[in-house]
Structure formats: structure tokens, C-alpha cells
Amino acid sequence: xxxxxxxxxxxxxxxxxxxxxxxxxxxxxxxxxxxxxxxxxxxxxxxxxxxxxxxxxxxxxxxxxxxxxxxxxxxxxxxxxxxxxxxxxxxxxxxxxxxxxxxxxxxxxxxxxxxxxxxxxxxxxxxxxxxxxxxxxxxxxxxxxxxxxxxxxxxxxxxxxxxxxxxxxxxxxxxxxxxxxxxxxxxxxxxxxxxxxxxxxxxxxxxxxxxxxxxxxxxxxxxxxxxxxxxxxxxxxxxxxxxxxxxxxxxxxxxxxxxxxxxxxxxxxxxxxxxxxxxxx
Length: 281
What we know:
16% of the residues lie in helices and 37% in strands. It has helices at residues 19-28, 77-81, 107-111, 133-137, 144-147, 161-171, 192-195, and strands at residues 4-10, 49-57, 60-68, 87-89, 95-97, 118-120, 125-127, 154-159, 186-189, 197-207, 210-213, 218-223, 226-232, 238-244, 249-256, 262-269, 274-280. 36% of the residues are buried. Strands 10, 11, 14 and 17 form a four-stranded mixed beta sheet that branches. Strands 13-12-15-16 form a four-stranded antiparallel beta sheet, with no helix packed on it. Strands 8-1-9 form a three-stranded mixed beta sheet, covered by helices on one side. By secondary structure, the protein is an alpha+beta fold. It has two domains: 4-193, Alpha-Beta Plaits (2-Layer Sandwich), CATH 3.30.70; 197-280, Sandwich (Immunoglobulin-like).
């Protein structure tokens, strides 16, 4: 079985430094790579785009960031609308939009469900991240997004499909818009930081008339009688139970501490993460 390129993106490691974005700009603005890509348009193109998602509310709130680029799909929608061989799928899995054959084919931009194909108004061509195929063909072992990233967000792998699926299952990887069934070659780790909700709170206990943070209290979240999440409060009495699907409905939250205090309440997950405020025993 032939080896193909895949990219793993770890959302938890991205801190929005934008080195990947800048490295791609540096590589392609003002540079022509015949057979791979024309020079990138200076403005309005984000071949590597950084999406932002805020979750929670004060004081338990977080911002997460997710690089999005051409997914180099095996069943690419852009290829289905392309004419005259404007897009090719290489044997190594990389999708290339031909900078000559694609002239005037704006439908290619609209076909991408990830919004990762951009229209170059000056050259009248669609353009997208080419996985730095020109560098890989020249002997590089990784694309510039990985080479430039200081926090190891990216991991490019040239392996057979069976091995990639093993890694996907072993590391719990996901893909964007799985309902589109495009068979992308860009996989995401910790994607729940962008897609799921969490429930959180601050537990307070009365100790001889003094309010203290309840450290090491056990927190259990149940749905329909079954445990779906568990946490232990930290030194500030705070807890967070993550990876709850939006619009997943009603849950029961149970809290207990070594002092014998117990608390139970119903919570409902709609579209946003919940901070339940101060919970007092």
C-alpha cells in the first residue's frame, strides 16, 4: 500500500502565535511555483486560517484556537466541480489546484465546505494551501507550518492509510465536518475544545463560620442515571467537566466532600458552556 501525506493538528497546543499563517505567507507571497501554485494574493487570503472559540464565563473561561487549511480530501468536492483537469489528486494524497488550468473557475472556491479555497481576483484563479508539496518534493520532511510552529501543534506523517487509521483510533483524532464525508487528510486532536461544552463551578465550604475553598471535593455528572463525567475540585474549589455535546439536554450534578457535605442539582446543556457560580455546602 502506498504512503500518503496526512497532517495532525493539536488544538490544545495552539496559542494563536500565527507563525503557521506567517510562514505560509512568507513562502507564497511574491513567489511563483510552476506546477504547484501561483503567488498568493497579498491581502484577503488566509491559506492557513486561525479560528477562535471562547467557552465558559468568568471566572472559568477559556479561548482556544484552531488552524484550518485545505484538507486534501480523498473525495474532494472541489474536484467534482473542476473542469479540464484543473485539480489533481497526487498519489501521495496531496491535492493541487493547477494555476493555469483553473483560470476563471470560481466554482472551485464555493465547493469547499471548509472555506479553505480563496479567489485570486488579480489572476482570476482559485488557490489553497498545497501542503508545501514543492518543498516535500525537494526533500523536506515536513511542511513549513510544522517547521515554524514553536508549540508542536502540527505533525505531518507520510504513511499508509491503514497506519493512519490506527493512529486516528489510538489518539482519538477527529476531522472537520464529518457529515460531509470528504475523507480529509487533516486530522484534529482535542477538537472538543472547539466543538463541545463544559460545565464548571466553584465549591465553597463553611469551616467554623469561615468560607473556604473546598479542595478535593468529588464532582460527578450523570445523564439518565449513568455517569458521563467526573472531576475533583482544585485548590480554589473549582471544577470543570468537559466534552459535553451542545444541545445534549439535562444532567444531574452531584458533589461530595470528605467533610460529609453533599450537593445535587440539575443542569441543562444548550449551546454554550456553563459556569454554575459558587456552590455552597
